[in-house]
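Here is one chain, start to finish.
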Amino acid sequence: MPNSGEKMIHSLENDLDDVNVEIGDNYLVRRSDGAWHAAEVIQTRLNDQIGGRAEYYVHYKGFNRRLDEWVEIDRFDLKTRTEETTSKEVHSSLTDLSDGTDRKITRNQKRKHDEINHVQKTYAEMDPTTAALEKEHEAITKVKYIDKVQIGKYEIDTWYFSPYPEEYGKQSKLWVCEYCLKYMRLEKSFRYHQGQCTWRHPPGKEIYRRGTISVFEVDGRDHKIYCQNICLLAKLFLDHKTLYFDVEPFLFYILTEVDRHGCHMVGYFSKEKESPDGNNLACILTLPPFQRKGHGKFLIAFSYELSKMEGLVGSPEKPLSDLGKLSYRSYWSWVLLEILRDFRGTLSIKDLSEMTSITQTDIIQTLQSLNMVKYWKGQHVICVTPKLVEEHLKSAQYKRPITIDTSCLRWEPPKKGMKAAKK
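Its structure:
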């Protein structure tokens, strides 16, 4: 006599026979948090790593593509197939300019809400050029085949598609060496590699060490495979990253935590050796297990310390991810508020830029978000009171980042013309 579990499986199989789930169909799907949401089926596959069972790649309507995922049939509500209007209603409820009461929220508040809650912009909200590029990008990266990646002791859920070679890119899970970043399809290959790999830190030069925090500078020209591997890994967690194989024009700064076993990668940022646009950072990532611990702001602060030593002002390459925007806005606000709190006298936007290496445009936008600047007689004028500064600094979003001890930084700006001499 079959038990209840067998009955449920049999029932699901009967439902599946009755309802043929196809690409483009819309159903209510149970997310990992237990809530039901309207979702569109994007792709299907038979997953060998779970016994060849069928899986369906779904996009939850109105949510960032980061939350797209592979699910099995038991997470579908097969009885009720949702119509397209349901999806629109769900999206409308997420983007409505109200806060659940009779009071309307401002567009600035809506923007912050959308960034924090990963609400995706519609094509109608974008300018035509951005919308066209976004459509092309979405078509190429629509399906994320790699669900999980094992890095050292961490198994991490991935967020986005990454263009790993075909035999690796269609696996539901990859294993990655946390030291040399070699990627593998099989756990037994990973275990064997762990016993053979002699690397215990990134290649290149260690330029910062304070306590258990260490930073290595890696030249993409000298360590091409390592830098390509870090780009492929990063793309699993970044939507709009496009640098995968052309790594030679870039320097990579790898943040690690050090213990008796070695230097464990926490995150990194890259920057062009020569940026025509004045960018001091091309790409930044903190691996998910280390997020919300101040490491992202540490990397941002580190990029500005290098700019100060070069005597330059800089800005990150656009577009930033939603998490990148939040991190930068928080960092810029904290730096400017600290200066405005302690400074006595008159300060101009130009003065702040020279003190911080932050561009004047980024400073103006940050001060505008803090309601600390006015446009008067053709120029931006800083308008602050000690009380306003203190109120902002008490806010949780402006908490002090991990500070950089410049006495522990062993780095010199590259000499102009050195690149040309090496060619």
